[in-house]
């Protein structure tokens, strides 16, 4: 497990069917000292399972440079938008 609480898991029965930018969005994690850590999201991914069900995942790059689904971390709390202004 890395410092953000990601457990290795097998998602071979899922595929990413689409990605879109996640500008101004972060994933918020609870750290061991109860502090919160925000990691910028790189994209939103539409993931589809073999049974046809789908879900949206926020993807970030961890400290080792690997892309991770934020919700897969045991210490994931929420997604947060940094700005609500619409340009």
Short description:
With about 90 residues, this protein is mainly β. The strands form 2 sheets. Strands 1-4-5-6 form a 4-stranded antiparallel β-sheet, with no helix packed on it. Strands 3-2-7 form a 3-stranded antiparallel β-sheet, with no helix packed on it.
Written description of the protein model:
- By secondary structure, the chain is an all-beta fold.
- The protein has one domain.
- It is built from no helices and seven strands.
- It starts with 13 loop residues before the first strand and ends in a 6-residue tail after the last strand.
Q: What is the secondary structure topology, with strand pairs?
A:
Layout: E1 14-21, E2 25-30, E3 36-40, E4 43-49, E5 54-61, E6 67-69, E7 76-81
Antiparallel strand pairs: 1-4, 2-3, 2-7, 4-5, 5-6
Question: What string, H for helix and E for strand, traces the elements in order?
Answer: EEEEEEE
Sheet with most strands: 4 strands, antiparallel
List segments where confidence is low: pLDDT < 50 over at least 5 consecutive residues.
Answer: 1-10
- With strands numbered from the N-terminus, the spatial order across the biggest sheet is 1-4-5-6
Helix/strand class? mainly beta
- Number of individual domains: 1
Helix content: under 10%
Number of strands: 7
Shape: globular
Q: How many DSSP helices?
A: 0
| Overall pLDDT confidence | 86
End-to-end Cα distance, whole Å, is 39 Å
Fraction in beta strands: over 45%
Report the C-alpha radius of gyration, rounded. Answer: 14 Å
């Amino acid at each position: 497990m890395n410092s953000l609480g990601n457990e290795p898991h097998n998602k071979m029965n899922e595929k990413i069917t689409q990605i879109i930018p996640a500008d101004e969005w972060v994933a918020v994690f609870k750290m061991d000292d109860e502090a919160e850590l925000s990691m910028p999201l790189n994209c939103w991914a539409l993931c589809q399972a073999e049974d046809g069900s789908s879900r949206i995942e926020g993807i970030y790059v961890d400290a080792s440079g690997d892309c991770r689904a934020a919700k897969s971390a045991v210490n994931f709390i929420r997604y947060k938008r940094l700005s609500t202004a619409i340009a």
